[in-house]
Write a structure and sequence with these properties.
Layout (H helix, E strand, L loop, with lengths): L3 H16 L13 H12 L5 H5 L10 H11 L3 H10 L5 H4 L7 E2 L5 E5 L4 H6 L6 H11 L10 E5 L13 H18 L3 E5 L1 H8 L4 H4 L4 E3 L2 E6 L2 H6 L4 H15 L1
Parallel strand pairs: 2-3, 2-4, 4-6
Antiparallel strand pairs: 1-3, 5-6
Helix pairs in contact: 4-5, 4-9
Bound molecules: uracil.
Uracil binds next to helix 8.
């Protein structure tokens, strides 16, 4: 018998599979086809002769996805080049479970760049950040101070370009390997101001969590003024916090004048 937490986790896992396109239950247990493919390749390969085995090269050095990411991001000379480099990056497992790379939306020449956390289900489907409920609130919030992604004023990206399974928090390793791409994204877009939206973004860009404490206090990130703000998803769950978010928007608006 499942307890309530196990039941919720099982339901979320099923929801995730349906989301990925599974529409039929064939076996009781999932089959890891990557493992099967590797086993089959190993079984099919003839054993090396003793002479050949001694001539085998040393094992390849361990992959270093952070170094690979730094190299790929550093080589990108434009936003389009960076998007292509991220699409080609194979170091992050999240890519396998995602439908789309979510790179950016809005005006790349905007003075304000918003850095959110990671795509959710709607963003994964559309390949654009902040298009679900939280995104609609974000549009209304920034629209209230005259900034919009359609008419200009804001450029939007996320710390992670791929949706984590069941919208879990990204791991420290995932953040570390995608940060070189985010850093390059900020350098290429070159905004005057960064809006650091939510805890994951604050952890990545400011090295701090506790967004409800640090929100509204101007600081610096990647050599430019940065305003930490609570995430619109948090505001949807805690409408009373909208008053403080409004104060933060007014502070941003004053800074832009
Ligand atoms: N939350 C985020 O942080 N980013 C998105 O793109 C969507 C929801």
């Amino acid at each position: 018998m499942l307890d309530a937490d196990e039941y919720a986790a099982a339901l979320a896992a099923l929801d995730w599979q349906v989301d990925l396109g599974a529409d039929e239950a064939i076996e009781d247990r999932p089959v890891d086809r990557y493992a099967h493919a590797a086993e089959a390749a190993e079984a099919a390969a003839p054993p090396p002769s003793p002479a050949a085995a001694s001539a085998l090269p040393d094992p390849a050095p361990e992959a270093d996805p952070v170094a690979d990411a730094r190299q790929a991001a550093g080589a990108a000379r434009s936003l389009n080049g960076l998007r292509a480099a991220m699409a080609a990056f194979e170091g992050c497992e999240l890519k396998r479970g995602a439908r789309n790379l979510v790179f950016c939306d809005g005006d790349p020449t905007a003075r304000v760049m918003i850095v959110g956390e990671a795509p959710g289900r709607d963003e994964d489907r559309e390949g654009r950040p902040f298009v679900g409920r939280a995104g609609r609130l974000l549009d209304r919030m920034f629209g209230a101070i005259g900034l919009s992604r359609q008419e200009g004023g804001i450029y939007i990206t996320n710390v992670l370009p791929w949706r984590p399974p069941q919208n879990r928090d990204p791991t420290a390793e995932e953040i570390a390997m995608m940060t070189p791409f985010l850093d390059r994204h900020i350098a290429l877009a070159d905004p005057q101001i960064l809006v650091v939206m939510g805890n994951i973004s604050a952890q990545t860009l400011l090295g701090r969590r506790g967004i409800t404490r640090i929100r509204g206090t101007w600081t610096e990130a990647r050599g430019r003024p940065a305003l930490p703000m609570t995430h619109p998803a948090y505001l949807l769950r805690n409408p009373a916090a909208k008053r403080e978010a409004w104060a933060d928007l007014l502070s941003l608006s004053r800074r832009l004048k």
